[in-house]
Amino acid sequence: MLASPEKYISVKAILMNEADPDGQNRLANSMLSTKIDYDKQLRSIMQKLTRLSQGFVEQC
């Protein structure tokens, strides 16, 4: 399902709002925070997979 046009307008309004020049920075910081969270989760998963594969190789 596609996002509604209102959602795009609201993001554009945040980025273009001259009364709130930091809006773009807040949006970027929010996106960066989300990326960092995903990176941490991915790193944790990869570490667990590495430990599992090492245990599997040792058993063979």
Care to describe what's here?
The structure is a single chain. The protein has 60 residues and is mostly helical. It has one domain. It has two helices and no strands. The longest helix has 37 residues. The chain starts with a helix and ends with a helix. The relative contact order is 0.07.
Element-by-element helix/strand order: HH
Helix content: over 70%
Q: Calculate Rg over CA atoms.
A: 20 Å
Cα separation of the termini: 47 Å
**Shape descriptor:** rod-shaped
Structural class estimated from helices and strands: mainly alpha
Domain count: the total is: 1
Strand content: under 5%
Per DSSP, the total helix count is 2
Biggest sheet details: none
Give the low-pLDDT segments.
none
Number of strand elements: 0
Report the average pLDDT across residues: 75
Question: From the structure provided, what is the oligomeric state, counting identical versus distinct chains?
Answer: single chain
Summarize this structure briefly.
With 60 residues, the protein is mainly alpha-helical.
List the helices and strands and how they pair.
Elements: H1 5-16, H2 23-59
Which labels suit this protein?
about 60 residues, mainly alpha, 2 helices
